Each structure stands twice: as structure tokens, then as C-alpha cells.
Amino acid sequence: MTAKKYFPIALFIGLQAAVLQAIDQAICAGIVPLFAGGGWISFQAWAVYFMGGCTVKNGVRAMIGYVIGMVASIAIIFCGGQLGALGFWAMPLVLLVLVPIILYLDIAPEMINFVPAVFVGAGVFFGIMSYIPGATFGNAFISEGIYALIGLVFGWLTITFRGWYEAKYVNK
Length: 172
Known about the structure:
The chain crosses the membrane at residues 38-56, 63-83, 89-107, 114-133, 145-165. It comes from Flintibacter faecis. This is DUF1097 domain-containing protein. Keywords: Membrane, Transmembrane, Transmembrane helix. The chain is mainly alpha-helical. It has one domain. It is built from six helices and no strands.
């Protein structure tokens, strides 16, 4: 594909990024009652859509992975708190037990076995709980879920536009 023919694709993705930023700024301005500054979650989820294979089915698998990751994070944080008397070793011990269990998703039925999305979802949840003042399990779960869904939809839009454009203007 030539640079000239690729330009509309690049411009469309740039437009999507601008819209995503505007959505995040609207949320940060309090127009939508979520925690502020979660646009980075949408950008990660957008990439997870591509990592998952760029299909609606795999987008759904990614969202399921995000949810499983958030639930796993809650379990890890809760169990770590219960073992707080162990001090430094509380969280490593919890991870030693729970991560192998989570990894069994690798051999689970197809719709719940997208382990990379589970780890991204868990990592984002830990980030929110660690660095967003006033974060609770509830508002972190809802906010991450909404931002992840937005990012997955943007991934779908990217692929849908690109497929349409290439079929109509490039691969004729």
C-alpha cells in the first residue's frame, strides 16, 4: 500500500484517538461520574483487541478476560489483607497460590481462556487501586469495565473502517 492510500486509515485512527481523548476529558471534567484519567485504559484495551485477533468474538473474549482479571485482583487484594500478619510475605504467598489457578484458564473453554486480557485487566485494576485516590472495588470495577469496553469498541471500529476502506479503495 502506498503512503497516499494509507493516509485515510492513519487519519481515521488519529480521529479515533482525538475522540477517545475528548471522552476522557469529559469524564475528567465530571460530565460522567467515573474516576478521572482512565483514558489510558481504553488505549490498552484498544491494543488488546488487536492482540486478540481483531474479531468481535475475540473482543468479547477480551472483555470477559478483563472482568476475570478484575475479580482475580479483588481476590488477591482481599486474601493479601487477610494474611497481613505475614507482613512482607503476605502478597507473594497469595500470588504463589492464586496465579497458578488463574493460569488454568489457558486450558479452559475458548470464551474464558484469553489469559493476556486477564493479566491486563488485573494489572489495570491493581494500578487503579494503588494510584487513584478514593478508589474502591466497586468504582474501580465499573470504571475499568467502561473504559475497557470503550477501547474494545474503538478497536472494532478501526478494523471495520480499515476493512471497508481497503476493499473499496485499495484492493480493487
